[in-house]
Amino acid sequence: MKVHKSEDEGGCGVVGFASTIPVRGKHIFEPSVQMHNRGNEKGGGIAAVGLSHEDLGVTKSILEEYYLLQIALLDPEARKEIEAEFITPLMDVDKSERIPTVSDYRTIAGLETKPPDVWRIFVRVKADVLDRFISETKLEDVDRRRAEDEFIYQNSFKINTKFYASLGDKRAFVLSHGRNMMILKIVGYAENIVRYYKLEDFRAHVWIAHQRYPTRGRVWHPGGAHPFVGMHEALVHNGDFANYHTLTEYLEQRGRHPLFLTDTEVSVLLFDLLNREYNYPLEYIIEAMAPTTEFDFDMLPPKKQEIYHAIQTEHIHGSPDGPWFFIIARNEPYENYFQLIGITDTAMLRPQVFALIEGEEVQIGLIGTEKQAIDATLKSLSEEDKRFPSVADKYWNARGGSYTDGGAFMFSIDRDDKLVCTNKFGEVVKTPEGQTHCDFTNSITPPLDSDRQREMIAAELKSPQTLFEFLRKGVKEWDWDKLRWTMSELTKYADEREGGGDRGEKRREKGDGNEPYTCSKAIVIEGLTILNDRGYDTGTKKRSSVVQIVKAALHLIFEDTPAIEAKHAGIYHLICWSNKDGLRPPGSAEAILILKAAEFPPEGKECDARLIVKAYGLGS
Q1: Model-level pTM?
Q2: Are strands 228-229 and 203-211 parallel, antiparallel or unpaired?
Q3: Where are the alpha helices (DSSP H) in 478-586?
Q4: Using one digit for the tens of pLDDT, what is the confidence trace for 107-157?
Q5: Are 208 and 264 found together in one domain?
Q6: How many domains, in total, are found in the chain?
Q7: E-strand spans in 25-127?
């Protein structure tokens, strides 16, 4: 029986975010690292939409009007042939360049296969060439610019057919060809794309990333990795299709010919068919891909049932069947907006999380297979720019095929840099109005009644519940500065080395006599944990900022805990990756081990879970 190593298997990791201000590629790096265990070093990819013309060295009009053609050269000699046949005689070229890379891919840890050279070309179809194409394909009734889209699409198909899909060596393929968007992918982890192609400072409004090879096709080849391009959109997905061959036949019958033999390619071909050829609104595209069924269908209004029934009658045999979750980064050049879309399959067999931040200066929508990836993105953003909170205003899950929200959400950014989140039915998703974020650029100053406030803090350290009630009331009544100062003071009471608010004296809490002895540190930790976890009225304050303040206080308390090898009278001991070998049996039954899991691998023999099991065996 063949045994598969754990690193060869695993589920895909997908993540994406759309921001009203362009942000650097380093911020798609962090969630990709967070999803590292979902990858396996065999495939990774990223896409960006709403790019910076300064970073690309072109004018704003060139970026918006020209097609950004990116060609992966597995054989560098293929470039001359491609240009001679498919570029120079057909296109007007504004700029052509090789995307800069590090000098030696082997200097990047974990990158074992050299990524392809990528040639970036800004092009428009020559007027006479486009005229002949429109006449030959009978597209006279189609908007000329949309006809040009089709020419670019078909030209890329010809390049891929000749230089990738035909028999023989895989020499080159088109990564992307849309306006104001790009795709890059490698054999490796997604985060190494950022490193190799020097994208740390490259800016875009929308970013998506994918970890792991595709489930079909040439799985250990950059051509088979996600994302895949439609026209002006890039798609990544987590999952697999049971009806892959049925879908390919459905597409073949309608003039869409898969070349890369992956279900992800089929997905974006289906989206492109419904979008550009059938000209469906996004709601109907989603319905065709993830049809509403059973009880949810019965709960729809009669008019919508009629429309959805017609869509399903026409397209049900072309709907992906099986577990899947799509994230799409999209430029809509005709309606002038950028978009991030998450679509959940009707059976909801793949994880997905959505998040939204609505600040006064920036708004951002995020989608991922896991909340940790979203939080890694926000942490990265907030460390660089305090306008981004490290906690989202709203997190939620979609229910695939739901009659309430349709199981799909879109974050759209217009050219005035305003973000709107809507569900499948076009209904706007918002956070509570009349609330503001904390301005973390301001320093913390003691309130005028600081002495009185210290007395009140000390008086409330009777139990975690009394501390929580005191702080919950304060969240509504105090200003941001007083709340932050109070949290800062609480961290001092949690310092066992300083004695805490009760000079470190242990005491028995009132109860049935079975509660453990505790001290100020235990009360502060549990009280803040309750404040972090429970729902309560935050008044005019954004809950995300309140939680960010609470988390910062807890992290400071944990970080300041003496290491496990240190000798001290307190009951708390900190262990992390650097001192994990110092794990020992507890000195008393009351000893508590605090584990900093950040640097531990998420899986395998060295993961934090294994250390917890070992600690439990020692008596912790």
Answers
A1: 0.91
A2: unpaired
A3: 480-493, 520-533, 543-559
A4: 998 888 899 999 999 999 999 999 999 999 999 999 999 999 999 999 999
A5: yes
A6: 2
A7: 44-51, 67-73, 91-98, 117-125
